[in-house]
Amino acid sequence: MIQFFTIYSLFFLVTALVSFFGAFLAWQRRNVKGALEIVWLMIASGAGAFWLIFETAAPTMAEKIFWSKMEFLGGISVPVLYFIFILRFTGKEKFLSKKHIFSYFIIPIITFVLMLTNESHNLIWSGYSSIYADTNLMEYYHGFFFWVGYVAYSYFLLIIATIHLFRFILLHKKSFRTQGWIILIGGVLPWSVSIFYLLGINVTPGMDITPASITISGILMIYAIFHTRFLDLAPIARETLFETLQDGILALDEQNRIQDVNEAAVKYLRMPGKNIIGLYAAEAGALSTALLDESIKEELSEPVEIQDGYSLKTFRIIKQPIHDQPGSRLIVIRDISDSVIRQKELIKAKEKAEESDRLKSEFLANMSHEIRTPMSGILGFTELLRELKLPEDEQQEYLAIIEKSGTRMLNIINDIINISRLETGLININLSEVNINEQLDIVFKSLKAPAKEKGIKLTLKKGLSADEAVIFTDKEKICSILTNLANNAIKFTPSGSIEIGCGQRPDGIEFWVKDTGIGIPEDQKEFIFERFRQGSEYVAKNYEGAGLGLFLAKSYVELLGGKIWAESKEGKGSTFFFTIPCPE
Questions:
Q1: CB 482 within 8 A of CB 475
Q2: Domain boundaries 245-335, corresponding CATH code
Q3: CB 393: neighbour CB atoms within 10 A?
Q4: Which contiguous run of DSSP H or E holds residue 273?
Q5: Mean pLDDT of all residues in 253-266
Q6: Which CATH class is domain 343-423?
Q7: What angle do helix axes 210-227 and 173-198 make, rounded to 10 degrees?
Q8: What is the pLDDT of residues 72-104, one digit of tens each?
Q9: Domain 432-580 classified CATH 3.30.565.10?
């Protein structure tokens, strides 16, 4: 069989090679969604162009018709494969079941069968021109089903695909605008050019320049694959996972040039924007240079702390080599600041819980002693009074001891009950008209006997006039606060003096209880208002008390809207202050 290969044959050879090369490139990314559709699309278009090489070189009409039928097999497949690819690319998976795909090929199959049997019905080609001697080409005159089964159906699929693709471009223009427009142009171009052939507008009669547009489409696809990372990641997955991740994603090549970056990485590295693809990372304008340095160095990084304004941010950097690209790597920048803060809070809470548990154990041990001692006194002296005939003065002495022990036990029980009521929110504020000077007198008189017993000088300073002294507050709470502070002062003052006083302040009334006792160690000042604490645990072993008085005093002051604090020097004494507002 003699073939006359012409310039047109060479033209279609180039077209076929470009299409097959595009299929090869897409095959390299065959595991990515949509890649296989591109492979089959490029193979179909390349096969069609390949058979046209022989059609343009065939010397007889019969041979040309045979090779045209072979070319037609690829031609009728291209529209359907392009349509399937667009559905896959735009995420229309529900229209890509086996049943749907088979239905898309029904009309092309019928068209091809009619093409093979055209001689008996002429529905595809109704006639032919003679072979032109100067070009070795001939023209094909088209029948009814060619226009219906091939042209109309192909353009119908093209229109639907274009609508889907255009919507996709509008929806994902932020990430896939370039890729979308390239695909759109590459898809529309061959069909636009084919219109000229179908209308008979040809520079060379019988020359279908549609394959030339397919060549251009192939070049566009190759550009998309290499320069816009087309098919590197399925679009819907990339939009969802890559762009919306809170982790920063940075892809670098072996020379530390930026291959890809998402919004989170731009934010963390404080880069000027995403128009930095292809730049060296060090020249991309990142303001957070410390984080960038940790990110681009090859060795693994420890969590890095970065000062961000007034807050300290902690980042963990994960580095993963990119398969089949030596030296390239994917860098994940993860903000773990909240996790670090929560971890520190958990450690602090654990230490506090352990400390609280230790204090409760010591409290219970101390409480058992506090209750056992007065109870032993009550039972012991009661037994003595029952069995012995004692003089009147000794009986009175024993009764006084029993009364003191009973009062001590009652105070402990009352403190425990009040703490329980505080924690359950059952203690209320009862406001009434209260004369502060009278309350100070009551507390002062109640402390004279224990102060005299220890040889302590007790003084009272009233800094309020008769009018200033009358305020609305909770009388019982004021009395309890002063009593607790004064009893504490007497307990921890072996000798010397105690002063109780009050004065006017712009924001209310200030009270104080000043003593010359043992004082408070500097490292214990922050603990003295906590439950079960007495400034230092060794104090509990040497002085009576359950360590509840200051906690109750602080709680009552805060209920009244005031504040309490202490000033002290170890071995020199302490002064406790508290303030309360004066509501109208």
A1: no
A2: 3.30.450.20
A3: 8
A4: none
A5: 81
A6: mainly alpha
A7: 170
A8: 888 888 888 888 988 887 778 788 888 999 999
A9: yes
